[in-house]
What we know:
By secondary structure, this protein is of the alpha+beta class. The protein has 2 domains: about 1-200, no CATH class; about 205-275, Alpha-Beta Plaits. The protein has 10 helices and 4 strands. A 4-stranded antiparallel beta sheet has the order 2-3-1-4, covered by helices on one side. A hairpin with a 6-residue loop joins strand 2 (about 230-235) and strand 3 (about 240-250). Helix 1 packs across helix 4 (about 85-100), helix 5 runs parallel beside helix 8 (about 175-200) and helix 9 runs antiparallel to helix 10 (about 250-265).
Amino acid sequence: MADKKKIFDTVKYWLVLNLGTLALAAGVYFFKSPNHFATGGVSGLSIVLAEVIPFLTQSEILMIINGLMLVLGFIFLGRGCTFKTIYCSAVYSLENFLFELLVPLGGALTDQTFLELVFAILLTGVGSAIIFNCGASSGGTDIVALILKKYTSVHVGRALLITDTLIAASSFFVFDVTAGLFSMLGLFAKAFLIDGVIEDIGKSKYVTIITEHTEDIGAYIIQTMHRDYTSYTAQGGYTGNQKTVLMTVCSRPEARRLRAKVKALDPASFVIVSDATEILGKGFREPG
Length: 288
């Protein structure tokens, strides 16, 4: 049973990771590139350079830059440039190239520029957040950040924000004022969206159960949910009665099922469910 769950979790992990990469690539190719939304990062730089270097397409430039970044990662980071980063960077670049071959675009999909900016931010923001939540990255400027972190005292977040701002600002000169304003708006909107999505995806539930049916509920947590729990004895302040308190952490769907099971086994129990923004450890996100 444990082996089946491990296989299921592994398949689910790679499906989610690839979904995030596909969303990122689709957002860049279908919405960012044709509208010249240079909202920072390697994708923004490739959009700007594609205008300056007309004999190379945006996807080709993206593949070249990501390839160079991976080489730098191998040289300066070694094992710090993980397989997941290599995989996501390669798939992300390849998907952009395939989109270009299979679905060639002559311009923007619609004449609603702001609507397209919204979809560009949503797809790339959610895609990046999913990839990050899987413990991976799409390469590019993330590798630059890791190199800066390893060899300098430069504040990485500030350095990347300055770099992204310069890339977005360059669209004022390479394209026009409209593209520049949309790029700057997209840059800051994407930053807020990614932070919000990462926090929401990473949320698990911290469940506290006060009950007299410890064995039945504990067996459900271990045997059905394949989670562990911590228990201790507590005394009620009003009644003075002793009861057992169980504490466990789990995903949101598991918390809903656990709450229903506890109420079925012990209608008199108390169940407290709280948000846990980040949980590090076996069965959750490994410490980085």
